[in-house]
Amino acid sequence: MPMPNPDLSCLAALAVELSPGATAGRTALSPDEAGALAALVARDLDKLVPGAAALDLGLVAALFDPVELLRPGYPLHAELERLVARAPGAAGGRVIGFGAGAEGLPPPLRPAPEHTQGPLRLLPLLVRGEPSAVAEVGDRMEQVLLDTGMAGADTALLAQDGFGAAVEHARLLTLNDLAAMMAMQYDHAGLGPLWPLVEAALLAPGSEQWLDAPPEPLARYAAGEVRIAMLDAEAWAEGGFAPAGADAAQLGRAFERFQMRQRQFAAVLEAHGIPVTFDHCPAGQDPRAVLSA
After folding, report:
1. Which long-range contacts (CB under 8 A, 24 or more apart) does 45-51 make?
2. pLDDT tens digits, residue range 56-108?
């Protein structure tokens, strides 16, 4: 799927924070409900960003996890951009909400069932128009939404009633804002070392990025995928990943934690849609050379 065109669209989301312990009764709104919610979002955005009302606005009225929006190529927004571009009517000022009909949402816009439990739910949205107008509106969105992007009370209430979930807050943010929030959350959750790999896949897919910070797993992002060094106990100790001065029992437990950390990192990367390959790196070989081959 092609990436969204940054000259034609600003990528954003309506972020809905659920109350602690709350879950949504529905993951998608009907087409009529989607249209009503999109109209309120367009109103809220126009209050915050003058000029936004002259652009087309598209909203997917379904609840997604942050990892589903922050994937290489931004596939959800790419599909949304395609649908907005094909929508009937003269471009400029259209407000289009995409909801679930009798057969549900089309497959490219369906939330994944394995990612439905988080407290932060996101509704993909974008504004689209002529490049000069998009550039001006996009700059303004990046400047103001993170600090002042609270949605209207009626917007939050409609989301709460429509999705059947207790909503603490609803706010507008750009995908760059979302990425910054996720970087902080990953850091707080002890996953900070992994974020540069995710960021490279999102923002610089043609680049190379290493995670080379023992005792963390060794990993390399390049050519659109992450390769992780699979080390046996001997190679792990030889490569400088083992704690110094540990006895045999401590080394055994540390190696188990290292393997769990590898699996955790791989699961997070794959949730972001980043392919992962484990490369066996035997003792006596430089694992960095293996990952670079």
Report:
1. 45/127, 45/141, 45/172, 48/141, 48/144, 48/145, 48/148, 48/149, 48/172, 49/137, 49/140, 49/141, 49/144, 49/145, 50/140, 51/133, 51/136, 51/137, 51/140
2. 999 999 999 999 999 999 999 999 999 999 988 888 899 999 999 988 999 99
Distance CA 17, CA 45 (A): 18
pLDDT digits (tens, 9 = 90+) for 198-254: 999 999 999 999 999 999 999 999 999 999 999 999 999 998 998 888 888 999 999
Euclidean distance between CA atoms 194 and 217, whole angstroms: 10
Q: CA-to-CA distance for 15 and 10, rounded, in angstroms?
A: 16
Within 8 A by CB and 6+ apart from 185, the residues are: none
DSSP 101: B
**Residue 252, Cβ neighbours under 10 Å: how many?**
12
Rounded to an integer, what distance in angstroms lies between the CA atom of residue 222 and that of residue 182? 22
| Rounded Cα–Cα distance for residues 214 and 212 (Å) | 6
Whether the CB-CB separation of 25 and 166 falls below 8 Å is answered with: no
Which token pair is 68? Answer: 């589903």
Q: Is the pLDDT of residue 1 over 70?
A: no
Residue whose entry in the numeric block shows the structure tokens 């804002």: 177
Nearest to residue 159, comparing CAs of 29, 19, 13, 20? 29
Opening angle at CA 224, ends 221 and 230, nearest 5: 45
- pLDDT score for 280: 96
Distance of CA 117 to the CA centre of its chain: 15
Q: How far apart are CA 29 and CA 37, in angstroms?
A: 9
